[in-house]
Task: structure prediction
Amino acid sequence: MRDVVGLASEPVPYDHPTGLGHTALLDSSVPPPPLVDFLYDAAIVGLGYVGLPTALTFHSNGFRVAGVDISAPRLQSIRAGEVDALASDNARLAKALTDADGFTLTGDPTILSQAEAVLVCVPTPIDEHLLPDLKALRAACASVVRLAQPGQVLMLTSTTYVGCTYDLLVRPLEERGLRVGRDVFVAFAPERIDPGNAAFAQYEVPRVVGGVTPMCTQRAIAALRGCSVELYPVRDARTAEMTKLYENTFRAVNISLANEFADISATLGLDITEVIDAAATKPFGFMPFYPGAGIGGHCIPCDPHYLLWQLRAARVSAPLIETAMTSVALRPGRVTRRAIELLGRRGMSVEGAQVLVLGVAYKPGVADVRESPALEIMQRLAAAGAQVSFLDDRVSTVDVPGQVIERVTEPRDRIWDLVVVQCVHPQTDLEWLRRQPAVLDTTYRLNDLPGRELP
Result:
């Protein structure tokens, strides 16, 4: 059994499945890297929904932090304290902005050479062909390699394919003449942030760490004590990379299953939410997942495709994952067809129908619309001729190609031909929905609405 390293403890050896512990693998004859008096304890590359909380966690624990982002508007928003974040993170940001010496924000990557630990937290999306889009990660890693200094700990946290840490950091560093595990220390330590969820603080969630060498793991563990209470070392960086892919693929497959059971339950006249809640009373062997209009955000719709892409190159199939990803990708189309069907049942054509989409963020509690099912639903309905509007407490504009979607701020005085509920933020007023003649509830949670229909 491996040791889980706690915040207050020193790095400890742990046993590999081979029986060799890290202590046995360390070569005491290897000279340590030259001592460098770094200006910052940590530099965070990319200040999005992962990078900014990471920087704030380091800073709130007394570490000197440099935050780097190439987006000038993003830096401006952070400096103004106008970011979509938890209340606790906004409070920490306000405090950090007053610390001129211990918290630096910049678009200049040369500051990376002045940090003892560098964490890369940039987006790793997919393109329209479901292929990995590595432009941001490649650019960030190229800067890290170019500016690397002896003694630094360099970590990827962005979800990516197995072997990426070696391809984008290890090989280029060694081409520069820096020996990984001796001169510099490289690891993969995937992020585990759930945006909008205050129940699981980043600092309290165990962090998986996989170094390229045992010494890399030890050094990465020491560096990450600034942002994690528990650190779980694994054999190597490739294992850590696969761990993150498995986590999010697990979620995608189970969401697909929940959607399928929702359709089955509708056929049999059952309430799927009641079924899932009842199954969740089992204290072992079950984890509840709930159906919806699709999956959105930066992780679940994207990450499994990094694995599938890599497997295709090896001529290996993963039929369960492929089927699940196809199923969840088709879900917004199903919702759209159901919306058109409901209009038809009311004797209305979709052409000219007044349709309101409630909640366009990909999940409750955030303003993030990346990969949100609402975008495809609105685009399809508008393309079919509907007059589509949206209501979202946290999102002011949406970009739907070829369509102009009006934002509604006061829904109480209007009657729509159909309301599609895609996402409900906390504290959102839903009382006005009772007056609506038809509500398509893709959340499966609004049981007491008189005009409620399910996908």
Q: What stands out?
A: The two ends are 46 Å apart (CA to CA). DSSP finds twelve helices and 15 strands in the chain.
